[in-house]
Amino acid sequence: MKNPLSWQLTIHTVTSLTSQIKRLINNQFRDILVEGEISNFKLYPSGHVYFTLKDDQSIIKAVMFNFYGRYPDDMFRDGVSVICKGRVDVYEKRGEYRLIVDALEVRGVGLLQLKFQMLKEKLLKEGIFDAGKKKTLPLLPQRIGIITSPAGAAIRDMLKIIFQRYPNMSVIIYPVKVQGDDACYEIAKAIEYLNMTREVDVIILGRGGGSLEDLAPFNEEVVARAIFASLIPVVSGVGHEIDFTIADFAADVRAPTPTAAAGIAVPDKRELCDLIDQMREDLIQSMIDILERKRFSLYQSMMELKDRRDFIVSYRMYLDELVNNMFHNLSVYMLNKRQAFQGLVQRLYDLNPDNILKRGYSIAQKVKTKEVIYDNRQVSQGEDISLRLYRGVLGCEVKEIINRET
User: How far apart are CA 97 and CA 63, in angstroms?
Assistant: First the structure.
């Protein structure tokens, strides 16, 4: 549109001006990195996240599409300093420019390292790494299970160490991928399989060295939980000595390298044989020492017995005397008790009412009340009474009461 005024300038509509600004910005600010602090962070049900990126002097609105599921929960929140990779775009309806974010990273910490730290803290709180829950390795395992890549140098080094230390050790190799997105699931499945079959006594989880990205499968939660749930002790030998993975913390024993893991899990047969020989010699010497002590003790006892022969003879006669006295005293005691018993029997006999009646005595009773009469004041003249004799009862009538006391 031509300017109707005196100066010769093109008149823009708001839309056309905004479109030109959009093109300029899009061409100029593509694939850029922007550092700032997150504020007003909000995740929408659509899975997109909107936030403001700010520093001490300025702010810029930002959006990241399909954010949900790409990063750990609570990884980004208000106050976190980040580096955003993306481009600047213009939202034409509002005439606003904003940062379209393709990737986010906490400032100074890579994403993999951040995920490592967050998962480590989570599992630590759950007790997955507790030392008290670690299983003890068997002294002499019958069979070793190795979970690793069959094509790597690590398996050759581990087998070399195992057969050097114990030439006839039985080994089961469970081949898995040790790198890539699906490797963690293969590793977890291998641990579960060896626990299900129960064919091995120790599991070695091994991999050679590499970058943090290379060791990523061993920093996954599914692997840590499979190790923790294993009923078979697990030795982790992942990476180099300076490398630490989540699998190392979850394992029952952490070895600095795969070859060190093989050395920890498998005893040295020569050392075991030497130990057995030493134990045999120690046992023989202990038995010899015991026999010598017992022989000397027996000799001392025999000499003491010989020296005390007369003493024993004297005590034997004394014992005979004690036995004779015991039998004599026992006889007297029994005789006294028998006489006392006979005296009691005689008293019982004498006090028997029938025996008293037999000597001419009788028991007088009132006929009506059966009351025993022991005093003439208990009866009246003309009253009927009964007399119980040794044999039979007499019915009588009181004719006279003599010498009755008032």
Answer: 11
What would you report as the CA-atom Rg of the chain, rounded to the nearest whole angstrom? 55
| CATH T-level topology, domain 14-108 | OB fold (Dihydrolipoamide Acetyltransferase, E2P) (2.40.50)
Tokens 């829950």 correspond to 133
220 CB burial (10 A radius; 0-12, 13-18, 19+): buried
How would you write the pLDDT of the chain (406 residues) with one tens digit per residue? 555 555 577 888 888 888 888 888 888 888 888 888 888 999 888 889 999 999 889 999 999 998 887 776 677 788 888 888 889 998 888 888 899 998 888 776 566 777 788 888 899 999 999 999 999 999 899 999 999 999 888 999 999 999 999 999 999 999 999 988 899 999 999 999 999 999 999 999 999 888 878 888 999 999 999 999 999 999 999 988 888 899 999 999 999 999 999 999 999 888 888 888 999 999 999 999 999 898 888 888 777 776 666 666 667 777 777 777 777 777 777 888 888 888 887 787 777 777 777 778 888 888 888 898 888 888 888 888 898 888 888 889 888 888 766 5
Cβ–Cβ < 8 Å for 138, 145: no
Q: Are 355 and 346 spatial neighbours (Cβ–Cβ below 8 Å)?
A: no
Query: For the chain, what are the domain ranges?
Result: 14-108, 141-267, 357-397
Task: Enter the CATH code of domain 141-267.
Answer: 3.40.50.261
By the 8 A CB rule, do 239 and 285 touch?
Answer: no
Report phi then psi at 96, rounded to 5. -110, 145
pTM: 0.52
Instruction: Compute the half-sphere exposure of residue 123: CA atoms within 13 Å on the CB side of its CA.
Output: 26
Evaluate whether 35 touches 107 at the Cβ level (below 8 Å): yes
